[in-house]
């Protein structure tokens, strides 16, 4: 209990509250501009959080991302352009509602169900994370090895349509993680005699490159000019929300639960949660024929899903150090920088920090109602800011931010190479998420694989001897073997 | 993907082979059979295997590999992308020499012009942007942005 009180003290300070409000405004701004994603918002924040204490640093990331995911709904409804990929699933639906004169209902549902979904995700995080940490304390290298493998498997099979390209992306990520001295033998690998490379490739410039620079390049290579679908002032966006909650309680619950689950699975985040939820909503709807004509039901379910995914993604991130999505992949980097190394011991050594993160999460969801409402009010003005002015400024911010992490131009080089690489990967159909996971988890995989191999002493069955390790291992192998098994089963009747 | 899989596959195969080859030279942990080369060797072998599969698949003309243009076709301008990349390269090469306050606005103007912003607006925004970044990062966050030739003014 003392820890909870300390945690409230950590959060309710003028400085931290100011950081939260500013991050919220920043998140709403970035999220509502098409082409700027929530992950990009996080990557751009990191250089600034670098200079903050741990709690405000995490608070700013949590708040900004929650706001950005909601704000992505705004241009969906007004311009038919998702502000973040997480809104893409129901962009057409929201836009068609605006065309029908229901902009308020579309945006209101986006806001209210984002908040409710977000709260659901946070509650699951608050309940599940400490309980999981309890279990994780007993984990040995075998469990961690299989957890990492399961994470890779999820990233490849859930996030992408092309398994082969997903594996290539993962291998490239692992290769990047090999660079430097951080390996069992402490030998320099792929450093080419360069002193900067012996420390490994810094995560933050890499992320800024892959999520911000690649976005700037994508913007530069093709220009769309959308038209605003509404030219009258907005009415009350909260009107009719209570009716919606009473009409679609099951949809809200289902979307939030699926969102939290998808968020918690490594490699899949808010965008995939929204797509899956939208499909599920249509599948189980009583009026599926209305989907795609400007029907609010899908927005309710997937709007809740994409925000609940944010909370879900922090569960494996805090407990195991395994990111649930690309945002937490960056956040884990920040946690390490702040000496808040993720893992079960974080819950025992510094419970007040964990509780503070929970409080911030809740606070961010509650703040979303008034600030989101204001954002909708000024949305038309924000959306008139030309992206041609913003993109070069973002570029400069990325350059300086990458420099600021280690105060060397080497960070800028890493950022540029990563950005160009991510741009081409996307063009050629290679998913980026497995690469990020490979980079973040490569060292962990090698360490646990290595000590497991030594313990096993040539007997591979030891990897499956402990109950949890065995289950995780069997699950991983099952997912990999499933396509093969399915084709064998399909062939048998003939 | 316009048959690019084949070329990407060849590139990946070469990379994988190089990784595998170089990994054999990494030292092992004393007293153990395995060492620093273990993971890179796995990665290298995996890359070669995936590359082979990718090439075979693209030669067979797998339909789903040719997901031609998802969404609406739109015009592409690679010129602006090249200017962006060029601006960052120029920053990397010149920042230490000329200093942030000279290189940053020049890079910004180049990018604005690549996006067809009017010259007067471009100059104005470049100066304002540089000033904002200088104040936030150099003054507030104390990031030692390079001064270059402006060092005497420091």
Compile the SSE list and pairings.
The complex is a heterodimer of chains A (494) and B (154).
Chain A: H1 2-11, H2 14-32, H3 38-49, H4 54-71, H5 73-79, H6 91-99, H7 103-136, H8 141-159, H9 163-178, H10 195-198, H11 203-221, H12 241-247, H13 249-264, H14 270-284, H15 297-320, H16 326-337, H17 344-349, H18 351-383, H19 387-406, H20 409-427, H21 433-456, H22 467-491
Helix pairs in contact in A: 1-18, 2-4, 2-18, 3-4, 3-11, 3-16, 3-19, 4-7, 4-15, 4-16, 4-18, 5-6, 5-7, 6-7, 7-13, 7-15, 7-18, 8-9, 8-21, 8-22, 9-21, 11-19, 11-20, 13-14, 13-15, 14-15, 15-16, 16-21, 19-20
Chain B: H1 4-23, H2 38-59, H3 78-98, H4 100-114, H5 119-140
Helix pairs in contact in B: 1-2, 3-4, 4-5
Strand content of chain A: under 5%
Mean pLDDT of chain B: 84
**Main sheet characteristics of chain B:** none
- Count of DSSP helices of chain A? 22
Which sheet architecture does the biggest sheet of chain A show?
A: none
Q: What percent of residues of chain B are in strands?
A: under 5%
- β-strand number of chain A: 0
Give the N-to-C terminal Cα separation of chain A: 64 Å
Tell how many strands the DSSP assignment of chain B holds. 0
Q: Low-confidence parts of chain A, pLDDT < 50 over ≥5 residues?
A: none
Structural class of chain B: mainly alpha
